[in-house]
Amino acid sequence: MDINIIFTPQGRRENMLRQGDLLIVKINDIPKGIKKVPSGIVFRGEATGHAHRLVGGDVFSDNGVMFLDVEKTAKLLHEEHKPLILGKGKWSVIRQREYQSKDMTRLVVD
Question: Is the pTM for the entire model greater than 0.70?
């Protein structure tokens, strides 16, 4: 699956956002043929069971890789974080990892 991430010197904050353990990156397009997630849940936290949920856009999933499609603006909500406003566009959601040692990483738990 090829994903083209948009990087620009100006507006970098608009192209890469973070909420808890999620990194949200603006991309050119969402891969074809992936399934829409009707609940709007992006990820559910392992530690608390709270969920990152998108309101005002569509969530798509392909084997655990999440994508967001926002027509105008949308909010990413979570009980333990401030709402995150996403502008119009297509977004890839990346679970952040924490390095424990040279050859070991683990997902950041929210």
Answer: yes
Q: Which residue matches tokens 């829409």? A: 36
**Helices of type H across 1-110:** 12-15
Coil/strand/helix, residue 9: coil
Interval 49-74 mean pLDDT: 92
The residue among 84, 32, 18, 21 whose CA lies nearest residue 57 is 84
**Mean pLDDT confidence for 34-59:** 88
Average pLDDT over residues 51-58: 94
Q: Compute the distance between CA of residue 20 and CA of residue 5 in angstroms, rounded to an integer.
A: 20
CB 83 within 8 A of CB 20: no
Across 4-78, the runs of DSSP E, i.e. the strands, are 16-19, 22-27, 35-36, 41-44, 51-55, 58-62, 65-78
Q: What is the 8-class DSSP label of residue 57?
A: S
Please, which residues have CB within 8 angstroms of residue 110's CB and are 6 or more apart in sequence? 20, 21, 22, 43, 45, 46, 47, 48, 50, 52, 78, 80
Predicted confidence (pLDDT) at residue 81 exceeds the cutoff of 80: yes
